[in-house]
Specification:
With about 1050 residues, the chain is of the alpha/beta class. Among the domains are: about 260 residues, Class I glutamine amidotransferase (GATase) domain (Rossmann fold, 3-Layer(aba) Sandwich), CATH 3.40.50.880; about 260 residues, Glycoside hydrolase/deacetylase (TIM Barrel, Alpha-Beta Barrel); about 220 residues, P-loop containing nucleotide triphosphate hydrolases (Rossmann fold, 3-Layer(aba) Sandwich), CATH 3.40.50.300. Helices cover about 35% and strands about 15% of the residues. The protein has 37 helices and 33 strands. Strands 1-10-9-12-14-15-6-5-3-4 form a ten-stranded mixed sheet. Strands 16, 17, 18, 19, 20, 21, 22, 23 and 24 form a nine-stranded mixed sheet that branches. The chain starts with 11 loop residues before the first helix and ends in a 6-residue tail after the last helix.
Length: about 1050
């Protein structure tokens, strides 16, 4: 609209009014940012504070007299590799999942058994009389122990007494266990009572004297009333869930089981009408543990609560009224002003010190999912019971001891990247500085780390621009790290564009004099970190000299305790933690799940548990989380204060490089570049996880059908190349590409660190995938099924390969292993090394190689060889090197041929019915029979009659293929003009001098072959349909190795 300066005929007064209004609007527009800034400072400076009310108490619990402290005398020792045994009350439950997560977070190995497998307990616990397989037993529902059949219960008790094994138990849902008409339940003959409370008790107390408490800070309490609402707020009504009917039926079945176990059982399953809202806590909600009369001195309280006046009142009509009046705690100074002698305290968590039957126990009066304290107290109870008995050898379960320091680093991502709702005002910047000063009281030296994208600077609203300017004016008080210039995701950029983005951001940092966090960067949305994008790591090193980064997505986002780090191309990747606030988490009232959900995460929930279980936590927050309601400050401040109030843990911080070293101190075996895996990540299919697929380059394939579904895994010198060649001749079987250099017909992706580092995209490229390429290989496609497979004989005895194969191909992959007489296999490897001019194989006979079983034996053989050749027998560098090569040759000859230990490693990841064991001798004697088994095992769509294809070549002494050509076999087959057949290449099927083994030579493999024989008998490996006995898959040469009974 045009505003005229003068309009003929317009009155002067009206003209002045128009001009005045126009000027006023212009002035307000020019000054608006200042007014808005002033208003933001006035009204937005008060942060939300999460209340943490934890106090010290002066109550003392009753101590156990020394005469009842049972001295545990071990009848035998526990295996250092022993595990925790978790006995579940059902096949699946939330409580058992909580216990499992707590054990896994502490890196403690465990075995879980559901009730339908309890019959295995007697044999399992007595299977290793000299070294116990279990170091701790946990009952998800302790009532199970009291109701076990006598032989099962005796097996557990005898085992615990013999090996000094402790027990942890939870008593779930007092409403289901105690009849409505009663207040107590006796735990069979065990002298402990479970008491139902008729009104909610007050306060959660940790005893000051309990020896169980280690990390937990004894002598602290929360005075709030205990109820489900205070334990874990915001419980969504089960009736609001889509699977409520199924859950109700399951619950009724569980209740029916208890009705069979408990006489006069009174079901209290109620079907109240409630709206699909949040459940309100019932009137009666908790129970306590009270020792039976006369047994008080055998129990030590760990945690307790104060009974309500109703429950504290004397009930003369109750035959257990003396128990009702029992109090496990009393005031240290009874003469103090507020002391009330009528107050009663009873145990929520109690320790049986072992004086009753020689078994230490820690028992909870509530379920594992009922209270935040379970994670804290279970951590202490597990460590206490594992370490309370001296062992001849330390338990591996105790190796992962993370101590009392928790190292904390907090990133603020996406600096300057904001919409009008998530931008920071000047007052927010001042508040951020105030929070940093406040946190330094809890975390000495703490400094926020700010991730910036310089291309977004000054692009917000007027007030947002003022906030950006305010932040840069205080830049010296923070540490800064690089995202990308425009916040672009690296997986969508070319290598040149990615370098340009990093260079622009570096120039921005130089212009504005930002104090850069040396060697540290984070990619927007963690793009390019995992799944790995090699160009990102290369660009980071070239522009910023990065050596540390973080990601939340390896191996996947949830569960949080399972996040891991890895090393790639000289950069260490540290797992990143979340704190419940994300890019759009701005206002508490809008939080998904409601304000109580975020409070729960800080006060005992996910954020608290992250700090509890994780030695080093790199927390991810975002620019907008420090504006509006400043929710990042809200949740982290609450979690820090809650942790310090309830534990002896200390919060610390340091530079990313220093924190990386702290992290690797606990993960050096798996994540450090010096580890056997070179710290490389376990690479999974990027499209199997939605979050990974979103940051996977669109040009890269990830269709699982393009990956192999079968693997010929070896071992070496058993005929794997011949098997690959014969399978490649099948029209429905697509082998990996056969190259003319490098590892030739073997990708060796899962066993070779250098090749594995090339990434998933490289592995996809090892297999033909276009119709044109498949047609050139004479492969059927379209409606017919194609089965891709690869062959790498190095996989069999690689301890890296099983996990890597599982991660990428899943447990549905089929495995083919060829087994050959181990002495013949060793001899073939020895001759193979001679043909490749291996020094040790040229200097020593096969018999001498077999005798070089250790460093001393190898050195002795080298000295003898030097003396025999007229040389100096003294030790020098060349002799030491030759001895090392001789020892290595011995191990490569012998170890793969032991078979059973390596097959066991695969069986830990893959079911036995997906493993095909083949007799390698059949490749020479009856290849058509062997190929029939392979076709049946792979369930090929088109059956090929190999009997019609195979013809024996007298000159090569091997079967060749008629027909052809077979382009898929590549250079592995060559045309033999003389016979008119397609035969294996000239370097296959060599003739060696016959092997003449001695009895000593045979003795080397006697025990390994017995182990292999037993393994095949015990595990249900795949067998053909016409098989009538497991003996059908045992090779004849293996049967000859097994000594007759009585020999």
């Amino acid at each position: 609209m045009e505003l005229p300066i003068y309009v003929p005929g317009l009155p002067a007064r009206k003209m002045r009014t128009i001009l005045f209004t126009f000027g006023l609007i212009t002035l307000v527009f020019l000054l608006f940012s200042d007014v808005e800034s002033w208003l933001s400072t006035l009204f937005c400076s008060q942060p939300l504070i999460l209340s943490v009310d934890v106090r010290a108490h002066n109550l003392r619990t009753r101590s156990v007299p020394k005469r009842h402290l049972f001295p545990i005398k071990l009848g035998s020792t526990i295996s250092p590799n022993s595990k925790v045994l978790l006995l579940k009350s059902s096949s699946t439950s939330k409580d058992s999942s909580t216990i499992r997560a707590a054990l896994q977070a502490q890196r403690i190995s465990f075995i879980s058994l559901a009730p339908d497998r309890f019959q295995l307990l007697p044999s399992f616990l007595s299977s290793a009389p000299s070294a116990g397989p279990v170091n701790l037993i946990i009952f998800e529902q302790f009532l199970l122990w009291t109701k076990l059949p006598p032989e099962y219960k005796a097996a557990i008790d005898n085992y615990c007494q013999k090996f000094g094994v402790g027990v942890i138990g939870f008593l779930l849902d007092e409403d289901l266990l105690i009849r409505q008409s009663e207040s107590f339940m006796k735990l069979s003959t065990y002298p402990l009572l479970l008491r139902r409370l008729h009104s909610a008790p007050s306060g959660f107390y940790l005893a000051a004297e309990s020896p169980v408490l280690n990390i937990s800070r004894g002598g602290q309490y929360d005075p709030a009333t205990l109820s489900p609402h205070s334990l874990f707020p915001q419980r969504v009504s089960v009736k609001c869930r889509s699977n409520y009917s199924r859950q109700l039926a399951t619950t009724q079945l569980i209740a029916q089981r208890f009705s069979n176990d408990l006489p006069d059982y009174d079901s209290v399953l109620r079907r109240q009408r409630r709206s699909c809202d949040y459940e309100k806590p019932p009137a009666c909600c908790l129970a306590t543990l009270v020792p039976s009369p006369g047994f008080t001195e055998y129990f030590q309280t760990v945690a307790f609560t104060k009974l309500s006046p109703i429950d504290s009142a004397l009930s003369p009509h109750d035959d257990l009224h003396s128990v009702s009046r029992h109090s496990c705690a009393f005031a240290d100074l009874p003469q103090q002003q507020n002391y009330n002698p009528n107050e009663q305290y009873q145990s929520l968590v109690i320790e049986d010190v072992g004086g009753i039957d020689g078994i230490k126990r820690v028992l909870f009066a509530y379920g594992a999912s009922s209270h935040w304290s379970v994670h804290l107290l279970l951590m202490d109870a597990v460590r206490y019971l594992l370490s309370s008995v001296p062992r001849k050898e330390p338990l591996k379960a105790l190796e992962f001891d993370i101590g009392y320091n928790r190292w904390v680093h907090v990133d603020i991502d996406d600096i300057f990247v904001a919409n009008p709702d998530s931008q920071l005002y000047p007052s927010d910047v001042k508040a951020l500085l105030a929070v940093q000063r406040e946190w330094r009281k809890m975390i000495p030296g703490f400094t926020f780390s700010l991730g910036f994208s310089g291309g977004h600077y000054g692009h917000g609203s007027a007030i947002g621009r003022r906030g950006d300017e305010e932040l840069l004016s205080h830049a010296r008080y923070f540490k800064w790290f690089c995202h990308t210039w425009s916040h672009s995701q690296p997986h969508l950029l070319s290598e040149s564009d990615l370098l340009d983005q990093l260079m622009k951001n570096k120039k921005f940092a130089t212009v504005h004099n930002l104090p850069i966090q040396e060697g540290y960067a984070v990619a927007p949305h963690h793009s390019g970190v995992y799944p790995v994008l090699p160009s990102l790591f290369k660009a980071w090193k070239e522009v910023w000299r990065i050596n540390v980064t973080t990601t939340e997505g390896y191996p996947r986002l949830f569960p949080a305790w399972n996040r891991r780090g890895f090393a790639y191309d000289g950069i260490q990747v540290i797992p990143r933690q979340t704190c419940g606030v994300y890019t759009q988490t701005l206002r508490l009232k809008d939080y998904s799940g409601g304000p109580h959900r975020l409070q729960e995460m800080a006060l005992g929930g996910e954020v608290f548990q992250t700090l509890l279980y994780t030695p080093v936590s790199f927390f991810m927050t975002h620019f907008g989380n420090y504006g509006q309601d400043r929710l990042a400050t809200y949740v982290l401040s609450g979690a820090f204060r809650f942790l310090l109030a309830w534990t002896h843990l200390q919060l610390r911080t340091g530079s990313p490089e220093f924190l990386t070293q702290q992290h690797l101190a606990f993960h050096r075996r798996t994540e450090a570049p010096t580890s056997a895996s070179a710290g490389l990540p376990l690479m999974s299919n990027p499209c199997a996880d939605r979050r990974h697929a979103e940051i996977w380059p669109p040009s890269n394939p990830c269709d699982p059908d393009l990956l192999p579904s079968a693997i010929i895994g070896g071992p070496q010198k058993t005929g794997t190349t011949a098997l690959l060649t014969f399978m490649a001749a099948h029209p429905n079987l697509v082998a990996n590409r056969i190259r003319s250099q490098g590892t030739f017909e073997e990708p060796q992706f899962f066993s070779n660190n250098h090749i594995y580092a090339k990434g998933v995209a490289w592995y996809f490229d090892q297999f033909p995938r276009t119709p044109e390429e498949l047609a050139r290989l004479n492969k059927s496609f379209g409606e017919r099924q194609l089965i891709r497979f690869e062959k790498s004989a190095t996989y069999f005895d690689s301890f890296l390969a099983p996990d890597r194969v599982l991660a990428l191909l899943s447990s549905r992959a089929k495995l083919i292993f060829l087994l050959k007489d181990p002495l013949q296999r060793a001899y073939s490897w020895y001759q193979h090394q001679r043909s490749h001019r291996e020094e040790a194989a040229l200097h020593f006979t096969f018999a001498e190689v077999l005798r070089a079983s250790g460093p001393e034996q190898a050195a002795s053989l080298v000295r003898q060889q030097r003396l025999a050749s007229g040389g100096d027998a003294g030790t020098n560098n060349s002799s030491s090197a030759l001895a090392a090569r001789l020892l290595a040759l011995n191990r490569r000859c012998l170890q793969p041929g032991t078979y059973a230990p390596f097959i066991d490693q695969w069986l830990l990841r893959f079911p036995p019915h997906q493993i095909l064991l083949l007799d390698a001798d059949q490749l020479v004697s009856a290849p058509a029979v062997l190929m029939d088994r392979v076709q049946e095992f792979l369930n090929v769509e088109s059956y090929v009659n190999y009997s019609a294809l195979f013809q024996f070549n007298e000159r090569k002494r091997f079967f060749c293929l008629s027909g052809g050509p077979y382009p898929a076999a590549g250079r592995l087959l060559h045309w033999d003009q003389e016979s008119g057949l397609w035969c294996l290449s000239r370097n296959k099927g060599r003739s060696y001098p016959p092997l003449m083994p001695t009895e000593d030579d045979k003795r080397i493999f006697q025990r390994p072959m017995q182990d292999l024989y037993q393994l095949i008998l015990q595990r249900q490996f795949w067998r053909p349909r016409n098989s009538t006995s497991v003996l059908d898959i045992i090779p004849p040469w293996l049967q000859r190795w097994i000594r007759p009974v009585g020999s």
